[in-house]
């Protein structure tokens, strides 16, 4: 069973509401500092994230496809090895190439006197 | 003549987006604008300064965290903050309800009327908060937003994401419940009758 409060009780409650509603609470300097410190902590990684993504220009997708710095390091090593082999090929490498390309063969598809292939 | 700074007059939502984009000044403006209101709401609902500070800090932390996902025009920042603060307060009141038995609400320290009659405003605020803790959370939230924050029923409906009729029902039942809880304790609380 619910007991209905009388008018006086409701008026007293209204007076209490009015009193508490009139209270103000100014934040202390310490609380403000804590709140701003929280904001800085939340903001720090969010601000760093766009920089971590790198440039957003034309080459950005290509850079990503190559694997960023790690991929570029591997490519640079392979390219350097290729340049070195071109300048100073090892003896063993020359032997192998000689086996395949050492002797030259001249093939003549058309007769020098019958370039149109008419059997003249 | 000093011209008004455009940032200081920017809407809360615009400042929140600026904050998400790394503008540190936006955090200071938002904190200066919203923290006093948030702290006062928590203080009035909880009647306890330390608890109110914890709630206000947590509410502001949630605001910072949601900044990156904030969509301008979808909701008022103030409405969102009222909701978060009220929810955090009702969570605290729910915990308090378990630890504060009904008959201990606003219990005077030594029971002497002469002492209790002099309970100052903070103590009465705490007593009101303890009584709020005895209400169902939704009623406590609606009553606090209506009678302590002075929001209109449509504003409360927006904060609580319910209809205006539901707000009217919650506030009416909550107020009756509070009056019943506090009945007979007016003298202890230092609330004097008019007649």
Task: Determine the strand fraction of chain B and express it as a percent band.
Answer: under 5%
Report how far apart the termini of chain A are: 127 Å
Oligomer: heterodimer
* Fraction in beta strands of chain A: under 5%
Integer average pLDDT of chain A:
68
Helix content of chain B: 55-70%
Largest interface: A-B, 35 and 48 residues
Summed over residues and divided by their number, the pLDDT of chain B gives a mean of: 84
What sort of overall outline of chain A do the alpha carbons produce when their principal axes are compared?
Answer: rod-shaped
CATH superfamily of chain B: PhyR, sigma-like (SL) domain
Describe what is shown at a glance.
The complex is a heterodimer of chains A (120) and B (195). Chain A is an all-alpha fold. Helices cover 63% and strands 0% of the residues of chain A.
Topology of helices and strands:
The complex is a heterodimer of chains A (120) and B (195).
Chain A: H1 7-21, H2 29-52, H3 60-65, H4 68-87, H5 91-101
Chain B: H1 12-20, H2 24-46, H3 49-66, H4 77-99, H5 113-116, H6 121-133, H7 137-148, H8 153-160, H9 164-182, H10 186-189
Features:
heterodimer, A: 120 residues, mainly alpha, 5 helices, 0% strand, B: 195 residues, Butyryl-CoA Dehydrogenase, subunit A, domain 3, 10 helices, globular
Structure, described:
The complex is a heterodimer of chains A (120) and B (195). Chain A has 120 residues and is mainly α. Chain A is built from five helices and no strands. Chain A has helices at 7-21, 29-52, 60-65, 68-87, 91-101. Chain A starts with 6 loop residues before the first helix and ends in a 19-residue tail after the last helix. Residues 51-56 of chain A have low confidence and may be disordered. Residues 106-118 of chain B have low confidence and may be disordered. By secondary structure, chain B is mainly alpha-helical. In chain B, helix 1 (12-20) packs across helix 2, helix 3 (49-66) packs across helix 4 (77-99) and helix 7 (137-148) crosses helix 9. Chain B has a single domain, classed as Up-down Bundle (Butyryl-CoA Dehydrogenase, subunit A, domain 3). Chain B is globular. Chain B is built from ten helices and no strands. The chains are: A mainly alpha (120), B mainly alpha (195).
């Amino acid at each position: 069973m619910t007991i209905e409060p009388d008018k006086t009780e409701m008026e007293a409650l209204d007076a209490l509401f009015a009193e508490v509603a009139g209270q103000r609470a100014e934040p202390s300097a310490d609380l403000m500092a804590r709140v701003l410190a929280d904001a800085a902590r939340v903001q720090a990684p969010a601000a760093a994230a766009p920089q971590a993504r790198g440039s957003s220009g034309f080459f950005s997708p290509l850079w990503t496809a190559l694997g960023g710095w790690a991929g570029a390091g591997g490519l640079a090593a392979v390219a350097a090895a290729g340049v070195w082999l071109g300048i100073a090929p090892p003896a063993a490498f020359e032997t192998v190439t000689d086996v395949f390309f050492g002797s030259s063969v001249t093939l003549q598809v058309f007769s020098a006197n019958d370039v149109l292939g008419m059997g003249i | 003549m000093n011209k008004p700074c455009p940032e200081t007059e920017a809407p809360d939502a615009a400042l929140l987006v600026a904050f998400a984009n790394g503008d540190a000044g936006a955090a200071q403006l938002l904190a200066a604008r919203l923290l006093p209101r948030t702290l006062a709401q928590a203080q009035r609902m909880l009647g306890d300064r330390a608890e109110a500070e914890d709630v206000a800090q947590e509410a502001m932390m949630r605001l910072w965290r949601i900044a990156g996902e904030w969509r301008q025009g979808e909701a008022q920042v103030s409405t969102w903050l009222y909701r978060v603060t009220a929810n955090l307060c009702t969570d605290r009141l729910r915990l308090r309800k378990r630890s504060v038995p009904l008959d201990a609400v606003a219990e005077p320290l030594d029971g002497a009327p002469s002492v209790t009659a002099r309970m100052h405003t903070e103590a009465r605020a705490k007593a009101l908060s303890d009584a709020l803790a005895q209400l169902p959370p939704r009623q406590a939230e609606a009553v606090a937003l209506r009678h302590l924050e002075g929001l209109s029923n449509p504003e409360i409906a927006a904060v609580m994401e319910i209809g205006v009729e539901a707000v009217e029902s919650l506030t009416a039942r909550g107020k009756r419940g509070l009056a019943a809880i506090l009945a007979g304790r007016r003298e202890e609380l230092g609330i004097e009758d008019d007649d």
